Amino acid sequence: MTSGHLTAFICYRDPDAAVGWITEVLGFDVVREFRDDGGLIHAELRRGDAVVCVQHDDRGYDVPAVKGDCVGSGLYVVVDQDDVTAIHQRADGRGTAVLIPPETTQWGNFRTELLDPEGRQWSIGTYLPGQPGDW
């Protein structure tokens, strides 16, 4: 067992559409799916060391509204600089809501901020959190 591994899970009303967006825009690969007669109930997606589980939202969870350029929480995917630009272009081409177009922050992160099809925030950037040292 790996100690300290973090995996995100997100419930979507339309999990197939979510998986399509996460794979096509963000470049994740589907590594496992579970379906029943009603469709997709759970999928596991991976990009490098990042893993996201998509589950069917059968309870109608609320998603936070955008305030300014943020919903207050989200997922952060670390990529290289070229990938930030490519992901932004794919997202823009699909009509994805872009909260922040590619920019370099004051702490040196090249990033873009996006909303997935159901309004959850995804931050895509070059900064690797959790490393010791100064900014």
Automatic annotation (TrEMBL):
Native source organism of the sequence: Mycolicibacterium vanbaalenii (strain DSM 7251 / JCM 13017 / BCRC 16820 / KCTC 9966 / NRRL B-24157 / PYR-1) (Mycobacterium vanbaalenii)
Pfam families for the chain: Glyoxalase
Domain VOC, chain residue ranges per copy: 2-127
InterPro entries in UniProt: Glyas_Bleomycin-R_OHBP_Dase, Glyas_Fos-R_dOase_dom, VOC_core
Gene Ontology molecular function terms on file: dioxygenase activity
SUPFAM superfamilies assigned: Glyoxalase/Bleomycin resistance protein/Dihydroxybiphenyl dioxygenase (SSF54593)
Domain of life: Bacteria
Protein name: Glyoxalase/bleomycin resistance protein/dioxygenase
Lineage of the organism: Bacteria, Bacillati, Actinomycetota, Actinomycetes, Mycobacteriales
